[in-house]
Fold these 3 entries.
Entry 1:
Amino acid sequence: MIMTIKELLQSGNESLSSFSDNPQLDSELLLGFIVKKTKHWLYMHEQELINNQQKKQWQKLIKQRQQGKPIAYLISQKEFYGLNFFVNQHVLIPRPESELLIEQILLHHPINESLIIADIGTGSGCLAITLAKYLPNAIVYAADISVHALSVAKKNARQHQVKINFRRGNLLKPLRNLKIDLVIANLPYLSPTVYRQTSMSIQKYEPKLALLSANNGLFYYQQLLAQIGSFFPSVKQIFLEIDSRQNKQIKTIIKQSTNQRISQAKIKISKDLQQQDRVVSIFI
């Protein structure tokens, strides 16, 4: 049975009503992806017919969405800070909360400033690429331990036509002996307990490597701060994303650092739109 765009959108909305917080938006995004058109175009052409091939593709995507697969993986993209990024199962889906990292950095650095930035655990590259866009005079390095994640990040850098210096390795190790002014990191910070409390959609589809960490979720941040203290004397600012429940522990880790530069640093914790502690800014 051939259906119009309007009928398919209504059908999608109904089919996803029990599986999505926003079934109408999901329906619009999935159909827009199939016909390669914007939401505005869809509503301006509600009576246009969808061919059988497109309808089959639509039904397949709806079924996958009903099974909990995130929209971003179904349409292979996610918007972050006004930019669209390619994503797949090898990288974490960019979250609106992470935009606060960008906001805090831009708050302290004018557009024409020359900086050397290191994005650690770059994943899709959304942080590094966004900073390269908004701070065009900056030199940006991006590191990740996953070769698959770096492949995604490189694709996004080409798409947005920015120069990023990509390195593969654990935390700051691939950047040893480089002068770096600023470190930004959204590393895995979920403890095993918190990870088990996340949705089945996250546990089933998003890379566990990018989410889970030992020591109450702060193992990688402890390692990162130790590396900065020991090998990167030029670093003056560090911006980290955390779970709001880690606000006191991260302060303790910083203040109890064996490196005086770290232990005496000024600490600022900023809240996200849900008024949850989200970004730790460290000024050395």
Note: Residues 3-67 form a domain with the Helicase, Ruva Protein; domain 3 fold (CATH 1.10.8.10).
Entry 2:
Amino acid sequence: MLKKLFPILIFTTFLLACTTSVNDSVVIKDGQIVHKDIYTINGDIIVGNNSVVNASCRTINGRIVIGENSIVKKASSINGSITIGRNGRIKKSVTLINGSMVLDSGAVVAGNATTVNGSVKMNHARILGNLATANGDLFIEHHSVVNGDIVIKGKNSKNEKRKVEIFLKDGSEIKGKIENKAKNTEVVVHTLGGSKINGDVIGAEIVYE
């Protein structure tokens, strides 16, 4: 009897610890402070301006939008985009599978930012950890900074050929290295407008434009 009740108790505890939604979106109002994890399936998570989420935002088949001057502990999405608004902040990491990631002016990710199949666009933004992708182009523009490394990773079959392009523009900077760890993946780094890479470039081609 206890063995049958144990999974139910775990699931009930999970529901009590989270704001959970299926087939609907969760909206955090402007200026609101939230301490519970937010979890959606087939629904968006919209965080208003000047809000604080001292927990994780996680969604499957939905997008996450973080408003201006708002703070979120951690964000992850499967099959949906993540947008961090002007002066927004992620206190830990951002993880995205199958979708694009946008960091608007003044946005900061204090940990690592990872995407599998989707682009990343930084506009005068900063990532304090590493930026990693398997199959998405990176647009690092308007004095954006990656404090850590850029890593291209993932496993390829022998017959699969991929190309990942990194556009480093407008005085942007990579303080670490750029490393291609994926076999059969061509990585091209376009460096424009006085941008610079402080570390080594491993397994990738640099094009100065």
Note: Confidence is low (pLDDT under 50) at residues 1-16.
Entry 3:
Amino acid sequence: MSKTLHIRFYEELNDFLPEHKKKVPFAHIFQGAPSIKDVIESLGVPHTEIDLILINGKSVNFNHHPNHGDKISVYPVFESFDISEILHLRPEPLRVIRFILDVHLGKLARYLRMLGFDSAYENDFDDEEIIERAVKERRVILTRDIGILRNGKVTHGLWLRSQDTKEQIREVIYRLDLYSQFKPFNRCMNCNGKILKIEKQHVVDYLKPGTRKFFHSFYQCEDCKKVFWKGSHYEKMVKMIDELKVK
């Protein structure tokens, strides 16, 4: 026997819906006794994008089974608002934000590392490896592939709307409200290792004459051993970081 509920999605969750279902309540016909999670994902919205579901005005979890005639409101992840008194749909928020990125987001991984965020990335990650590491290491999955986020094992993830890297970094910062968590130049943009200050005498033999003459403060990645100093690239990155701080 068919049943009907009325559902509305809010804010960026509408990105997953066809035009006629955006920002308005609409009827959804279903059969059997699916969970609200199954209903939502059947409409194309990944569960990782959701932090609050209200059915007839009361918050419910993903396992709740909707009934005929229910009125449902679905809200996106709230990172910058206090909704502690109502039922969150994800495990407790990550205390330390760590990311893992799919194979198409190498440039974004470099930008996140520049800002100091632990960002795992390899150009040969497969979907299962990304999911397993995300769960084991409590990492947020960043992807353009909605299919990864529909996997039931995934608890934290963002589907990136833009294909432009600079827009993607702004999107991640804004949607997760990361403005206060920048720790620039603490991670290697190449390998994600931690960068530590090192005495010039320990790296002087690896420096070009001009660098050796004009620079005196040096830093080294503890993993790949790459050496860094505050040259012209540093000034460009500082400017970019200052621009990203503006909401």
Note: The radius of gyration is 22 Å.
